[in-house]
Amino acid sequence: MPPKSGHLRAKNVGYDDDDGYSDDDYYEEEQSGDGMTDEDREQLRINTAKVKESLDPSIGATDAEIQESLWHYYFDVGKTVTYLKNKLAPAQPKTEQPKKQKAVSRFDQAAAGVEQSTPGKQSSSAARILESTCTAPSMGSALSTLSVMSFKAPQQTDFFWDTPWGNVPRHRLGQISVEPRFPRGGLLGGSTKLAKLAAARKKKQEEARSMEGDATGTDTAVALLDRLSLKNKERTTTSDTRGQDAERKSFTKKYPRKRSPSPPPAALETEEIPLPEPTQPAISFPNLRANPSMFASTLCGKDEQGAQEQAVGSSTFPIPYAAFHSFEDANPFAGPSPDDIVRKAQARRNKPKAAQSKKTTGEKLIEPMTKLTVDETPRVKSKNLNVVQEFEKSGMKRMANFVVIGHVDHGKSTLMGRLLYDLKVIDQRSIDKLRKEAETIGKSSFALAWVMDQTSEERSRGVTVDIATNYFETEQTRFTILDAPGHKDFIPNMIAGASQADFAVLVIDASTNSFESGLKGQTKEHALLVRSMGVQRLVVAVNKMDTVSWLQDRFDEISQQMSTFLVSASFSAKTITFIPCAGLTGENVTRKVEDPNATWYTGPTLVAALDSSEPAAKRNIEKPLRLTIGDVFRGGITNPISISGRIDAGSLQIGDTILAMPAAETASIKGLEVENEPVDWAVAGQIPTLHLADIDPVHLRLGDIACDPKAPITLVKSFTCKILAFEHVLPMSVDVFRGRLQAEGKVTRLVATLNKTSGEVVKNKPRIVKPAEVARVVVELERELPLEKGTRVVLREGGNTVAAGLLEG
Ligand SMILES: Nc1nc2c(ncn2[C@@H]2O[C@H](COP(=O)(O)OP(=O)(O)OP(=O)(O)O)[C@@H](O)[C@H]2O)c(=O)[nH]1
């Protein structure tokens, strides 16, 4: 039987300094009940066969003897054979033995020297190993068997007398303790490189410590080793300490410590552990006790002694203002504030003539602001183009912006993605990439929608959140798509999109029940909103026709119901077009439908219907500039502040100065882009990007108006408007929306209900305005807004659209 012991542990002991650290030091090998691993058993079996082969059969060694010897010689076949030959055939000369031995290490030599020079001390080194090894209860019995079997007190004649591991000095035995079965705590699992290094360092420190302790009791050779290792240790310690000090210094420098409040002196005095009587120190040490922090002193009062000690120390920090006893009495607001001084200085500069000339009640409030905006000299050189002439000369295609509206998930983004893909605005590679990405998150059906929905939130939720813009052109027209969110939570964003649109594409899901649920939801609300915001032309895309097998009945049913509703919502039947299509498959989007069930349809494709739209109403190019800011962003390193938005009226060019309202701050246009292309000018109806200079971004907010400084938009705090009620309206709090602009307000007065078509007064001072009624109401705002006659607003309350209105003054 092979011995069962912690022998395995001994195999892992690295005696030489240059022995590398091994994982085995921290991971005990998998052992079965006999203390051996499967690997050991296999090794033992192979080596037993080898030993048997090498031994003269006359020697007659049993398997048990061979295995025992192999075990003690760490499976060394040569040594085992020699040992068995010596043991079982004593006649053989012993002198051959050293030749076969492995070269001994420096430590082994030293240890052997110890044993030779101090015979009395050679008492059972192996037993000592065992003593220290047999600490783990699990190994106890196996080891005790081993100690009885193999580690009898060695005789000079004993074969083991010169085995190096049998002569391990006691101070080294600390290493041979039984390791815990699992990685030690504190090293984060022990398998990382860091953990290994930490463990190796710890081991070295322990080694050095044990050396110090035993140094006196060792002989010269061990003392020599001690000195060697101590030197090393000193070296390491010094360099370590130096290193640590340097590290600490640099760390302290890098991350100066916060002074945490020290406990007050009283707390220190009440320490429970009695301190030993202080002996008179030969050298007086500096008082290293930390002084209470200023914070603690302030809170708990000053300890006089502490204060004195503190006075001696150099690291004192006065409380700000502590020296000024009368600081409570002083009035810090007596003089003008630094802001006042700056504002006063700025106010001395010239006032903008335009801003001055048009004074309203509200302007009194923003007077200081307008005084700040003076510099009308553009910093960027203007080409002084006559933009109206340039526009006429350019022979530009007609332009149209359309907003895509409809209930959530009815397929708006997919339809637009398909349209852009089929018109080759989006290339195959991009689509493949989107498909792949969509597949990875299990939303492959949304790949086309992702052409429009580009934020990670939209993609992960599968819902459009904000207006997405894209462009395409047909033979006659350059189109700007404004894809609106369908979810009711994002109606304000839909309003912002609709406020920039010339016409709308209303997408309706033809699938069973989807159309019906949309009617109760945003299909109707969106249609009403765009109408009340001035949109007259509507293309109704009856989408997902593939899900109803292109059934004509379904198409007709939807068309009829929607026509009735839309006409009741003041759309003209002539300006509504119904197109059956399937965005997902692309049928009847840019190409004719080929489904055999769809032969009944002979009308235009969706793109053809868009292209044949009436040109937008005449653009107000010659009117003063009005651009509703739809986005404020950083347009790159050279363009730290950029805005984009639709030009509602007028034109602009590079070098122009614009006035941002309500901030009443001017800025100069240093760069212009339309549809991502640099241009020199832009006109009403376009949605350009303006790269600005000479303005602080804080003065630009979504919904603000960029206008002509010579004809600025007025700021109003209350207005009268003609509304179409969606819900009951009475004097109530409302949120007022104008494009991206949103402000709190109140319907303060119901002036009259009006006739829908003629606009004549039906009833003065009604107590309530019912849904679908038209009325004149007065709205008061919490703050002044840039609004003027003809502006369209939406009134909402508690997340519902209450009414849409047109400003009358
Ligand atoms: N079968 C079929 N499914 C479609 C069609 N069009 C869109 N879908 C699916 O309808 C789901 C919603 O499509 P979206 O394009 O995200 O809908 P949406 O109206 O833009 O949604 P929101 O913008 O969040 O309101 C997706 O799973 C599409 O694959 C279609 O023509 N046929």
Automatic annotation (TrEMBL):
Catalyzed reactions per annotation? GTP + H2O = GDP + phosphate + H(+)
Indicate, by first and last residue, each region the UniProt record lists as having compositional bias (Basic and acidic residues).
228-250
Q: Name one GO molecular function term.
A: translation elongation factor activity
Q: Where is the composition biased (Basic residues)?
A: 1-10, 251-260
Q: Which keywords annotate this record? A: Cytoplasm, Elongation factor, GTP-binding, Hydrolase, Nucleotide-binding, Protein biosynthesis, Translation regulation
Span of domain Tr-type G = 397-618
> Under what name is this protein listed?
Elongation factor 1 alpha-like protein
In terms of Pfam families, this protein maps to: GTP_EFTU (PF00009), GTP_EFTU_D3 (PF03143), HBS1_N (PF08938)
Q: Does the keyword Methyltransferase apply?
A: no
Give the UniProt record's GO annotations in the biological process aspect: cytoplasmic translational termination; regulation of translation
Its assembly, as annotated, is: Component of the Dom34-Hbs1 complex, also named Pelota-HBS1L complex, composed of dom34 and hbs1.
Keyword Transcription regulation part of the UniProt annotation: no
Which residues lie within the region annotated Disordered? Answer: 1-49, 227-271
Superkingdom of this protein's organism: Eukaryota
Q: What is its main location?
A: cytoplasm
- Enumerate the subcellular locations listed in this protein's record, separating them with semicolons: Cytoplasm
| A GO-annotated cellular component | cytosol
